[in-house]
Specification:
Blueprint lengths: L33 H7 L6 H18 L6 E4 L4 H12 L4 E6 L6 H11 L4 E5 L3 H15 L4 H17 L4 E4 L3 H4 L14 H7 L7 H6 L16 H7 L2 E4 L8 H10 L24 H12 L3 H11 L5 H11 L6 E2 L2 E2 H5 L6 H11 L15 E2 L2 E2 L9
Parallel strand pairs: 1-2, 2-3, 4-5
Antiparallel strand pairs: 6-7, 8-9
Length: 391
């Protein structure tokens, strides 16, 4: 009988718990990750000047707007988009809120969308063809291991199309994920979201819309909602997308408390595979998305959230590690209380089909196997990678 394969020890940030398996994550010579480096710079930032700069940006583009709105705000109804809307209103501007409908909307997701509307804004919800979307979900899951591929694409294209359609050039996004969660050196201070950012950081994973026509036989009309506007249309409308998180000290937990005070609803208990009850509440497919992240890279949503709070001094590294060990990488039997089989049904996938796809995307170098070469499991959960380097 052969011996179990030796697994690769993951290198973890010396301050938080982000691993070097995260794509494009930069570490300095001291072993600190890009997200921690960026956070350490926050006390040196003149946030008052940045807030004035943000207000000036809004004033400038509101004059260029040819509609009744000063800017477009992409929203989901979540805590962060609620804060985006509240801040725009607080500064005295009028947003057009744009929703790119999620793949499998939950009940609590609908409640939070309705609550956001009650803040006193105009809101347009674009709902791509659900038959096309289901095909795209399955292609994304089977091809690049991401069921949320079409959702991410829609989130970053539909608000831009709305800005062009309604001639409202400024788009106000939320956080810069490369700053909050770490990315390549030099990407953290980017204040603008454009086509280049979408293609590099927007979750396309190498799968382009053009591939869907040539390889999978979709027609241009079926993919129209997912096409980024032309360079000519963008230039004519002078479209610019900025990250609000580069102008204000972004903090997801603080955002939650303020959003809750304005009617936002949380789930009431930690969400499966996560560490909090107040985010990723809208799409029942989120659990599958987070699980595949774990299978590919050996860390999941709990690691992201714990690391954010370690940086802010709310958790020690040791406390965070215990949470990660308990919460990360949980097999998505349910999400928001809905059974996996029910979530897979619209994609015409069984749980057995799902498990086979999971195995195809499981990183063979970072998970423990037994003497027969099978992955060791505790129930349906893959045993986590060796945490020796994280202690």
């Amino acid at each position: 009988m052969s011996k179990p394969e030796e697994i690769i020890l993951i290198r973890y940030c010396s301050h938080c718990l982000l691993p070097d398996t995260k794509p494009d994550l930069y570490f300095d010579d001291s072993g600190k990750c890009a997200a921690c480096i960026a956070f350490d710079e926050r006390p040196n930032i003149d946030w008052s000047r940045r807030e004035k700069e943000f207000s000036d940006v809004l004033k400038h583009y509101s004059k260029l707007s040819k509609s009744q709105w000063d800017c477009v705000v992409p929203v989901s109804g979540g805590k962060d988009s609620t804060i985006q809307v509240l801040k725009i209103l607080e500064l005295g501007f009028t947003p057009l809120c744009v929703i790119s409908s999620t793949c499998h909307l939950s009940q609590i997701g609908r409640l939070n969308i309705d609550n956001l509307r009650q803040l006193g804004v105009d809101l347009i919800e674009f709902s791509p063809n659900p038959i096309v979307r289901r095909r795209l979900n399955r292609i994304g899951l089977e091809t690049v291991g991401d069921i949320a591929w079409p959702e991410h694409l829609g989130i970053f294209t539909i608000p831009v199309k709305a800005a062009v359609l309604y001639k409202t050039p400024l788009i106000v996004w939320g956080e810069n994920s490369q700053n909050e969660y770490g990315g390549p050196s030099g990407s953290q201070e980017n204040k603008y979201l454009d086509r280049n950012w979408l293609e590099e950081f927007g979750g396309l994973l190498g799968l382009r819309v053009s591939d869907l026509e040539s390889v999978y036989g979709f027609t241009p009309k079926e993919l129209a909602m997912y096409q980024y506007p032309s360079k000519e249309d963008l230039e004519e409308c002078q479209v610019t997308g900025v990250f609000m998180g580069q102008y204000f000290p972004w903090d997801g937990m603080a955002n939650y408390f303020l959003a809750q005070a304005n009617g936002f609803k949380s789930f009431g208990s930690p969400i499966e595979g996560s560490a909090v009850d107040y985010e990723n509440l809208d799409n029942l497919q989120h659990g599958i998305h987070d699980y595949f992240k774990f299978l590919k890279f050996g860390f999941g949503r709990a690691t992201d959230l714990v690391s954010i709070n370690i940086r802010r001094g709310r958790l020690t590294r040791a406390q965070g590690l215990e949470i990660v060990k308990q919460r990360d990488g949980k097999y998505p039997d349910t999400y928001l209380g809905i059974e996996l089989s029910e979530i897979l049904r619209p994609l015409s996938l069984s749980v057995k089909d799902f498990d086979e796809i999971c195995l195809r995307f499981t990183n063979p170098d970072i998970f423990v196997r037994n003497e027969s070469g099978e992955y060791l499991r505790s129930g349906k959960d893959l045993i986590k990678v060796n945490y020796d380097n994280a202690d």
